[in-house]
């Protein structure tokens, strides 16, 4: 105990900090889907090399947009999904190496609560049977003991003993989520992955479940990985937060710091997008354009570079108008999109007939983006060159020129983690190195 | 003053774009009658966004569907409900195209005295039925729009265009009037829905047909509502997609809905809605299924569109953050009723109804660290007439009268038009005084509250 205090090297104010022993250590974890697929095609890189620790007794939040890999990461931590590479050390054991009986025994320690209380409960089983099932699977105690234990669990999560014989459809959403939680607690796990546990619930009901989860953690010393897209819930319940984008963790650190003083441009953008329940709040919003890229085709360099509002610009174009930059970004999106889009048969026929649909529409897009702008000579000639390639249906070359001329380190090299505060908060961005302006300065200037 | 006067007529040009009064929609199932929308009154001006917020099952979607004429069996809009669409151009167009279904209220006024008519109506009615304070305020228009004219032999069942003022005989001379949305059918309904009023749903795929390209679907709307076809329609479709921020629109117009991402689909639906140049846009949780960064894009888009085209927007959501951001005025719904309404700032800074207060306190964030406030229990299903407060079971402030007296909307602050339906108000009255005021309001007419008469 005292050992830990020394290690954390800080005066411990909160109870939770006191036990900063690592429960789970994740190193360079990757989970790809469809890698060995029949078509030998490109894999979907759902989790693309993440490293972080989960401390005993804490609640670590995992946030990010849909499809960024949150659920896959959660499932991989429990070996419900096979890791493609990397390690998950749980109390010292790398569970990605476990299989068969060892894995089966280990799983008792770690459980998952799902988002949708409606589909995760079997409607043909009574509440008692549902909560009991894991006990039966692990041959826990005598039938009598099991029944007692289940009733105890129902009590713990705020349900009544007579609910034992009812069916899930007789319950409201909040109560159904309680049933799911009771079931998860049955085998007395240490670690729980909560995947959007309150997203399907009404606000007033959601508050009760959040309070329940906090009580349970206190009582049983549980460690939570709390996956959510609702950042206000995360801000409330989590000790630390990891922000995920396209299979990568962009920033990870203590909740208050991260919310009040975000370091990574993506964290900045995500936080600024949340509508606040305060009509007088002046929305200094950074609206990201476009959508996250397809994880089958992540961009080179920084995963966020296609949408980043703080992207590093080459010095020779530093003075270029923001509107022109917006146009260049959109042009790049369009080219990337076209590069991937299957050309429909019809389109190919039309092309052969000499009605070059793509040609026409690149010109249109160009006019749309830049027609009303006054573009400096040097940039204009490069843009012309790009459009010429695109009109020839050579998106690859068009993109190569675009990246060469308007790209920067953000497109060329993957960033590394930088420590951005005294608490060890990490951010994944080139802008933390000396030669570039900090993200917040750039964002202030550009927005 | 019992006779509708010309001053009231002249006011009509300032009337809201849509004026919903005592809307009641019930579902008649074998087991029970669910009063999904139970007497709500909402109005929206052109260029204004009115929010409707409430928890699941509070009746938000049914409200929207009732206005759109999309209520299906076993659901029904009840008699006494009125939803008046005041847009003058539309009224003129309808009066000329559907003259058989047009009622000249201005001429009928000489023949009928509303007070006499009220005596002849057999149903339970009260001023509340017409969203009026006093019986003497009830006008002939109110009686006809709410559907009581049919039995009295003044209107026929399919009448739905009501002219309340004109300066000559021709349709162009109409100076005021409205279309009663709850009475629309067939062709008249089709022209309204998707033409003058359009709806954006939570799931864009409910509005998009998977087997047609996005472009074709927009072009169909353009053909139907604006008579555009061929090249011209294609050009307009591309322009609309561009207007809603879809890059490379010239190519995407030929793609199918499944080739679009979620946010892009919702943009396409909005483009389709705009294709008909609507006056009123009803958005039912349009961003709930989207990520926050995409939600921000869509909200920004709606704001731009509204500024450009001056349309009225009804915005439905359960998200208090979104409501705060988009609305000018807010209605909070609970179990089929609007329980508080106010301009957005008053509502958030000075909520009055115990439910609104509870709801705002249960939102995490802000108060940080502390335990979250909760509202015990769940939203009840409104399956009995509301002659009590439907929030009473969960209300921390409930007292005896709450179980037997139905709270009416009363002014709750100096701020104009901030009302709540709770027996604790008006604050300046004693509790007994307040309760008797609510009781009086309920009785002010001859009858009791409407008991769900089918139209
Ligand atoms: N087709 C139907 N048949 C029977 N009852 C219905 C039908 N449609 C809606 N209801 C009932 O009407 C009430 C109001 O439903 P509505 O869908 O308007 O709620 P809502 O506020 O939109 O909720 P949510 O936030 O979940 O979308 C509910 O009790 C619902 O069960
Ligand atoms: S590395 Fe570049 S693109 Fe990535 S977040 Fe930092 S500034 Fe943005
Ligand atoms: S009327 Fe009574 S029960 Fe209803 S909100 Fe007011 S105090 Fe609460
Ligand atoms: Mg709804």
TrEMBL record, chain A:
Chain positions covered by the region annotation Disordered: 414-447
Q: Which Pfam families match?
A: ABC_tran, oligo_HPY
Residues annotated as domain ABC transporter: 24-271
Q: Which BP terms in the Gene Ontology apply to this protein?
A: transmembrane transport
Where does this protein have compositionally biased stretches of type Polar residues? 416-426
Q: Which domain of life is it from?
A: Archaea
Q: Which UniProt keywords apply?
A: ATP-binding, Nucleotide-binding, Transport
Its Gene Ontology molecular function terms?
ATP binding
CDD domains from the xrefs?
A: ABC_NikE_OppD_transporters (cd03257)
Q: Where is the composition biased (Basic and acidic residues)?
A: 431-447
What does the similarity note say? Answer: Belongs to the ABC transporter superfamily.
Descriptive protein name: ABC transporter ATP-binding protein
* Native source organism of the sequence: Halovenus rubra
Automatic annotation (TrEMBL), chain B:
Instruction: Give the enzyme's EC designation.
Output: 7.2.2.11
Assembly with partners or alone = The complex is composed of two ATP-binding proteins (NikD and NikE), two transmembrane proteins (NikB and NikC) and a solute-binding protein (NikA).
Q: What is its main location?
A: membrane
Q: Which UniProt keywords apply?
A: ATP-binding, Cell membrane, Ion transport, Membrane, Nucleotide-binding, Translocase, Transport
The UniProt entry, under InterPro entries, shows:
AAA+_ATPase, ABC_Ni/Peptide_Import, ABC_transporter-like_ATP-bd, ABC_transporter-like_CS, Oligopep_ABC_C, P-loop_NTPase
The ABC transporter domain sits at 18-360
Its placement in the membrane is given as: Peripheral membrane protein
This protein's superkingdom? Archaea
Question: Where are the stretches annotated Disordered?
Answer: 431-455
Q: Which reaction does it catalyse?
A: Ni(2+)(out) + ATP + H2O = Ni(2+)(in) + ADP + phosphate + H(+)
SMART domains in the record: AAA (SM00382)
Q: Where is the composition biased (Basic and acidic residues)?
A: 437-455
> A single GO molecular function, which one?
ATP binding
A single GO CC term, please?
Answer: plasma membrane
* PROSITE patterns referenced in this protein's UniProt entry, alphabetically: ABC_TRANSPORTER_1, ABC_TRANSPORTER_2
Location(s), subcellular = Cell membrane
The entry's protein name is Nickel import system ATP-binding protein NikD
């Amino acid at each position: 105990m005292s050992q830990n205090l020394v290690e954390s090297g800080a005066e411990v104010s909160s109870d939770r900090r006191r036990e900063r022993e690592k429960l789970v250590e994740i190193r360079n974890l990757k989970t790809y889907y469809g890698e060995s697929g029949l078509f030998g095609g490109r894999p979907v890189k759902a989790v693309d090399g993440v490293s972080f620790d989960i401390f005993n007794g804490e609640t670590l939040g995992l946030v990010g947009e849909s499809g960024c890999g949150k659920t896959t990461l959660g499932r991989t931590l429990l070996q419900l999904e096979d890791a493609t590479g990397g390690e998950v050390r749980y109390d010292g054991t790398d569970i990605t190496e476990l299989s068969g009986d060892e894995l089966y025994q280990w799983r008792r320690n770690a459980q998952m609560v799902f988002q949708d209380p409606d589909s995760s409960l079997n409607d043909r089983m009574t509440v008692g049977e549902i909560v009991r099932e894991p006990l039966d699977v692990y041959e826990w105690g005598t039938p009598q003991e099991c029944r007692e234990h289940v009733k105890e669990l129902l009590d713990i999560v705020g349900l009544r003993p007579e609910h034992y014989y009812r069916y899930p459809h007789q319950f409201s959403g909040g109560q159904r989520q309680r049933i799911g939680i009771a079931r998860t607690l049955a085998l007395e796990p240490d670690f729980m992955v909560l995947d959007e546990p309150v997203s399907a619930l009404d606000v007033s009901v959601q508050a009760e479940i959040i309070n329940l989860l906090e009580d349970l953690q206190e009582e049983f010393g549980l460690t939570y990985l709390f996956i959510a897209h609702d950042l206000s819930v995360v801000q409330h319940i989590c000790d630390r937060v990891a922000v995920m984008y396209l299979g990568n963790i962009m920033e990870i650190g203590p909740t208050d710091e991260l919310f009040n003083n975000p370091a990574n441009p993506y964290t900045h953008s995500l936080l600024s997008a949340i509508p606040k329940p305060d009509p007088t709040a002046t929305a200094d919003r950074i609206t990201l354009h476009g959508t996250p890229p397809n994880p089958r085709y992540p961009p080179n360099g920084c995963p966020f570079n296609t949408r980043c509002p703080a992207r590093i610009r080459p010095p020779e174009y530093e003075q270029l108008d923001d509107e022109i930059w917006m146009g260049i970004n959109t042009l790049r999106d369009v080219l990337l999109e076209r590069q991937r889009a299957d050309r429909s048969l019809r389109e190919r026929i039309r092309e052969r007939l000499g009605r070059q649909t793509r040609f026409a529409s690149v010109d249109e897009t160009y006019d749309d983006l830049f027609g009303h702008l006054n573009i400096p000579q040097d940039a204009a000639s490069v843009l012309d060159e790009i459009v010429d390639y695109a009109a020839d249906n050579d998106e690859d070359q068009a993109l190569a020129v675009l990246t060469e001329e308007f790209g920067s380190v953000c497109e060329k090299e993957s960033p590394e983690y930088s420590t951005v505060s005294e608490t060890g908060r990490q951010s994944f961005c080139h802008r933390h190195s000396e030669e570039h302006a900090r993200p917040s300065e750039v964002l202030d200037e550009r927005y | 003053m019992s006779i509708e006067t010309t001053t009231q007529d002249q006011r009509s040009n300032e009337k809201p774009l849509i004026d919903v009064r005592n809307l009641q929609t019930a579902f008649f199932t074998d087991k029970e009658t669910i009063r999904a929308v139970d007497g709500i009154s909402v109005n929206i001006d052109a260029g204004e966004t009115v929010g409707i917020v409430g928890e699941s099952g509070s009746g938000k979607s049914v409200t929207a569907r009732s206005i759109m004429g999309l209520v299906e069996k076993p659901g029904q809009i009840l008699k006494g409900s009125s939803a008046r669409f005041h847009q003058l151009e539309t009224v003129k167009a309808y009066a000329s195209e559907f003259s058989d279904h047009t009622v000249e209220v201005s001429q009928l006024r000489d023949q009928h005295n509303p007070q006499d008519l009220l005596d002849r109506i057999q149903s339970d009615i009260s001023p509340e039925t017409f969203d009026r304070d006093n019986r003497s305020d009830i006008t002939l228009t109110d009686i006809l729009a709410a559907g009581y004219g049919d039995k009295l032999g003044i209107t026929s069942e399919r009448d739905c265009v009501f002219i309340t003022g004109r300066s000559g005989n021709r349709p162009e001379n109409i100076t005021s009037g409205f279309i009663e949305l709850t009475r629309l059918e067939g062709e008249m309904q089709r022209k309204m829905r998707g033409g003058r009023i359009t709806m954006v749903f939570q799931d864009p795929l409910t509005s998009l047909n998977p087997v047609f390209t996005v472009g074709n679907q927009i072009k169909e709307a353009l053909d139907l509502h604006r008579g555009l076809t061929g090249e011209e329609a294609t050009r307009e479709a591309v322009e609309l997609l561009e207007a809603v921020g879809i890059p490379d629109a010239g190519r995407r117009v030929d793609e199918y809905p499944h080739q679009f991402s979620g946010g892009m689909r919702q943009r396409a639906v909005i483009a389709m809605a705009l294709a008909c140049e609507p006056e009123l846009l009803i958005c039912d949780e349009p961003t709930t299924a989207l990520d926050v960064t995409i939600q921000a894009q869509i909200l920004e888009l709606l704001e731009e569109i509204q500024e450009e085209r001056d349309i009225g927007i009804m915005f439905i959501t359960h998200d208090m953050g979104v409501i705060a951001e988009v609305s000018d005025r807010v209605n909070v719904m609970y179990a089929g009723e609007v329980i508080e309404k106010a301009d957005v700032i008053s509502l958030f800074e000075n909520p009055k109804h115990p439910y609104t207060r509870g709801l705002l306190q249960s939102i995490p964030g802000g108060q940080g660290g502390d335990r979250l406030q909760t509202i015990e229990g769940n939203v009840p299903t409104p399956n009995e007439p509301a002659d009590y407060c439907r929030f009473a079971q969960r209300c921390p402030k409930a007292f005896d009268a709450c179980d037997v007296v139905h709270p009416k909307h009363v002014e709750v602050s100096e701020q104009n038009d901030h009302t709540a339906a709770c027996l604790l108000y008006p604050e300046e009255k004693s509790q007994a005084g307040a309760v008797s005021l609510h009781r009086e309001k309920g009785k002010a007419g001859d009858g009791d509250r409407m008991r769900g008469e089918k139209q």
